[in-house]
Amino acid sequence: MNLAAPPGRATKLPMPALLALATSVFLGCLTEVVPAGILLPASADLGVSPSAAGQLVTVYAITTALTSVPLTAMTAGVPRKKLMLALVAGFVVTNLVVAVSPWFALVLLARVVSGAVTGVLWSLVANYAMRLVPVERSGRALAVAMAGTPVGFALGVPAGAALGDLVGWRWVFVVMALIAVPLLWWVAAVVPPLDGEARGTRASLRTVLRTPGLRPLLALVIAFSLGHNLFYTYLGPVYARTGHAGLLSTGLLLFGLATVAGLWLVGVLLDRHPRAVLLCCAATAACCFAALAIGGRDVGVLLVASTLWGLAFGGAPTSFQAVTAALAGRTADTAQSLTIASWNGAVAGGALAGGIVLGGAPAALPWVAAALMAAPLLLAGPVTASARRAG
């Protein structure tokens, strides 16, 4: 399976194909996070508590973490474009089921299926984008394809909440299903077909895990995601402790907009300076957590730190996936699924750990998050050195 474009291919990015991939990622991200903004009306309509309705987000992340590796391995031989179309069609079906089901159990099941679809999608899209361009342009191609992630996080919850208030929470899922229908045509029209892995060339999971640098990278991903989600999940209580609960929506908006800028910045720098990008993402996030712990009662510090944190976070997932591909070479799909599983497992772990810290020593929350960012700072050098040797 060739992971880079052949020599002589035009260096201009294939923007129509990359934007179609980005829209697919946006749809997956939107499907994951949008229930957070409509929990109250959804819980009332489905006859469950808000905490129970919150599991619509939790099971999605956990399913993505648990299924991305085995499902990516199972579908490795499927032609990439056919698999892409099947995954987008999966969003049509699952979102429509959520929109019309009167039973919470069926809604929860549909969310489980959506989580599984997303795990395969993110593994597939990262490698797909990087195979469409020469290796020296792969970082930029990946940044474009994964732009749907920060846009989804920035717009998903507020847009879903606003639409739910206007027309009802079920119509939010109808709209997401409707987005997927023209996306099917778009992918079919502009995304080039690529072969899957031939059966005799597929590496086992154990072989992939022995790839030099991959296990330190996965540890880096887990530490970064733990630190981020431990703090982000409980940002509301953090703002309340500083006396600025009313500024939470402003802080989240600034964070979301900055993630888009961070992704663009990483796309410009990643191909030439992967180690610096990884170090800057972790170091900036750690400094922001410390600033919020020390001076968060000052409005300027609060909002500036939230913005810079978003800038650091915006490019981090793309950086991890680009370095994964550089390390793994021809086994990139399987390696990407391990990165996705590590990230999403840490999403759930961060929320759990953050809740424990918040209940016992709430003032320590930003310091614990900052400490977790020390691991990426220590591991970035060895990981990128392995990536350079692999390249």
From TrEMBL:
Annotated compartments: Cell membrane
Keywords: Cell membrane, Membrane, Transmembrane, Transmembrane helix
Principal subcellular localisation of the protein: membrane
InterPro entries: MFS (IPR011701), MFS_dom (IPR020846), MFS_Efflux_Transporters (IPR050189), MFS_trans_sf (IPR036259)
Source species of the chain: Amycolatopsis minnesotensis
Name the record gives this protein: MFS transporter
Bilayer-spanning residue ranges: 51-71, 83-106, 112-130, 142-163, 169-192, 213-235, 247-270, 277-296, 308-328, 340-358, 364-385
Pfam families: MFS_1 (PF07690)
SUPFAM superfamilies on file: MFS general substrate transporter
Transmembrane is among the record's keywords: yes
